[in-house]
């Protein structure tokens, strides 16, 4: 495991060092635009970001992914690797980090718009036509009423009180 970690840019890297490198290269505004984390927007400081990221695992993973794939520009993770936490991933021996990707607010906007369009296109392919993704099934209110009445009857059948006074719970 340690041998695999030797080729991971996050191995042995402190969170404070990572945030400092990112802020020095990108600035707070770029980091907020790219990651949408309020710790980069509202009264940002290295200390407050580190404190927030130590407490919030999903945000730390988001920043670590950004560090790996935008700042160090490592090869994209496979689906199996992406399921792992960024600090647990390894890279093939001989793969070296490249120059950081230069980002501007306009470029980030374009990338986010493209990602949103790709997501919408994928959803339109995966989802059938119609307002809620399918054919209408009739009166929804009647269907809801019927299902709730059936559910109530089922619950009451299960919870029928015991007729034995010495065993009120029916056990």
Radius of gyration: 26 Å
- Count of strand segments: 0
Class based on secondary structure composition and strand pairing: mainly alpha
Mean pLDDT: 81
Main sheet summary: none
Instruction: Tell me the fraction of residues in β-strands, as a range.
Output: under 5%
What gap, in angstroms, lies between the N and C termini?
A: 53 Å
What is the helix content?
Answer: 40-55%
Q: Using the alpha-carbon principal axes, give the shape.
A: elongated
Tell me what you see in this structure:
The protein is mainly alpha-helical and 171 residues long. Helix content is 55%, strand content 0%. It has 8 helices and no strands. The protein has helices spanning 2-5, 15-26, 28-35, 46-55, 57-71, 79-82, 105-126, 140-158. Helix 4 (46-55) packs across helix 5. The radius of gyration is 26 Å and the shape is elongated. The mean pLDDT is 81.
Name some characteristics of this structure.
55% helix; single chain; mainly alpha; 171 residues
Would you kindly provide a brief summary of this structure?
The protein is mostly helical and 171 residues long. 55% of the residues lie in helices and 0% in strands.
Write the layout of secondary structure elements.
Blueprint: H1 2-5, H2 15-26, H3 28-35, H4 46-55, H5 57-71, H6 79-82, H7 105-126, H8 140-158
């Amino acid at each position: 495991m340690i041998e695999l970690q030797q080729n991971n840019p996050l191995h042995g890297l402190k969170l404070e060092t990572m945030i400092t490198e990112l802020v020095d290269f990108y600035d707070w505004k770029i980091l907020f635009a790219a990651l949408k984390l309020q710790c980069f927007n509202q009264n940002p400081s290295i200390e407050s970001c580190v404190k927030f990221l130590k407490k919030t695992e999903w945000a730390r993973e988001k920043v670590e992914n950004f560090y790996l794939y935008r700042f160090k520009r490592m090869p994209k993770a496979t689906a199996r690797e992406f399921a792992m936490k960024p600090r647990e991933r390894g890279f093939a021996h001989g793969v070296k980090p490249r120059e950081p990707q230069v980002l501007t607010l306009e470029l980030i906007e374009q990338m986010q718009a493209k990602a949103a369009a790709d997501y919408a296109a994928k959803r339109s392919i995966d989802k059938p036509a119609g307002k809620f993704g399918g054919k209408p099934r009739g009166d929804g209110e009647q269907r809801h009423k019927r299902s709730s009445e059936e559910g109530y009857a089922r619950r009451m059948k299960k919870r029928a009180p015991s007729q034995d006074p010495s065993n009120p719970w029916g056990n």
